[in-house]
């Protein structure tokens, strides 16, 4: 396949999701939750491939607090302030809220909470004492650990899926999928901070779907 690809960057999760379900573009790199939310709105969108990092399909989300905090587990977060990431984020909201609920913490048990939009903002807000605790991806935790934060709980997330719009011609879908599965150029893969792409299926994202559904009770 020899074709030109135009890059389009959307300013928010919501607009990117709406763009996909309305076929404003052909394919996208989404977080797991954005895929589920898109699929809920348009069941005809399709998975293309999923990313792998260090030859793994999963990585960790991390609950953090200040290094000198007496908070040691999720149950200790009762009556504490909490920083989430984006309100459509897999780690930054949905799976984190699922973990909190499983440990008896609802929004009513927290003294306050806020969506800060990005993992780095959460890490810095906790390090600076603006919130008692927060949640970030493990890579962000490692980057800001020296600022005075510690991990109190980890949980699994799955890597990013690539998704195509409804009614994409099958010959284009197959050619695009094959080219991505066979991509070995390290310079290109470095852009995505991964090792390559592998086949995937909707059922691999079922636990994210479950987390989104449970988070409605938060």
Walkthrough of the structure:
With 218 residues, the protein is an alpha+beta fold. It folds into two domains: 13-50 and 160-206, D-Maltodextrin-Binding Protein, domain 2; 58-157, Periplasmic binding protein-like II (D-Maltodextrin-Binding Protein, domain 2, 3-Layer(aba) Sandwich). Helix content is 35%, strand content 22%. It has helices at residues 13-21, 32-41, 90-102, 119-127, 138-144, 170-181, 186-191, 206-215; strands at residues 27-29, 46-52, 58-66, 81-84, 112-115, 133-137, 149-158, 161-164, 196-198. The strands form two sheets. It has a five-stranded mixed β-sheet with strand order 5-4-6-3-7, with helices on both faces. A four-stranded antiparallel β-sheet has the order 1-8-2-9, sandwiched between helices. Strand 4, helix 3 and strand 5 form a beta-alpha-beta unit.
* CATH fold-level label of the largest domain: D-Maltodextrin-Binding Protein, domain 2
Alpha carbon gyration radius: 18 Å
**Biggest sheet descriptor:** 5 strands, mixed
User: Can you identify the CATH superfamily of the largest domain?
Assistant: Periplasmic binding protein-like II
For the record, what CATH class of the largest domain applies? Alpha Beta
How do the strands line up in the largest sheet?
5-4-6-3-7
Number of domains: 2
Which CATH architecture of the largest domain is right? 3-Layer(aba) Sandwich
Helix content: 25-40%
Strand content: 15-25%
Number of alpha- plus pi-helical segments: 8
What's the mean pLDDT score? 94
- Strand pairing plus helix content: what structural class? alpha+beta
N→C terminal distance: 47 Å
């Amino acid at each position: 396949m020899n074709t030109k690809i135009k890059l389009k960057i959307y300013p928010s999760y919501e607009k990117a999701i709406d763009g996909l379900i309305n076929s404003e573009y052909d394919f996208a790199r989404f977080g797991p939750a954005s895929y589920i939310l898109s699929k809920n709105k348009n069941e005809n969108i399709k998975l293309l491939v999923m990313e792998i990092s260090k030859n793994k399909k999963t990585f960790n989300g991390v609950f953090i607090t200040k290094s000198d905090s007496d908070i040691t587990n999720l149950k200790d977060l009762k009556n504490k302030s909490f920083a989430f990431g984006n309100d459509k984020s897999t780690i930054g909201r949905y799976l984190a809220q699922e973990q909190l609920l499983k440990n008896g913490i609802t929004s009513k048990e927290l003294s306050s909470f806020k969506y800060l939009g990005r993992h780095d903002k959460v890490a810095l807000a906790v390090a600076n004492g603006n919130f008692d605790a927060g949640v970030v991806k493990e890579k962000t935790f490692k980057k800001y650990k020296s600022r005075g934060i510690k991990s109190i709980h980890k949980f699994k997330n799955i890597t990013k899926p690539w998704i195509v719009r409804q009614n994409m011609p099958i010959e284009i879908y197959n050619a695009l999928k094959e080219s991505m599965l066979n991509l070995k150029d390290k310079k290109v893969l470095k852009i995505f901070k991964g090792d390559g792409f592998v086949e995937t299926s909707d059922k691999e994202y079922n636990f994210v779907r479950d987390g989104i559904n449970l988070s409605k009770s938060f």
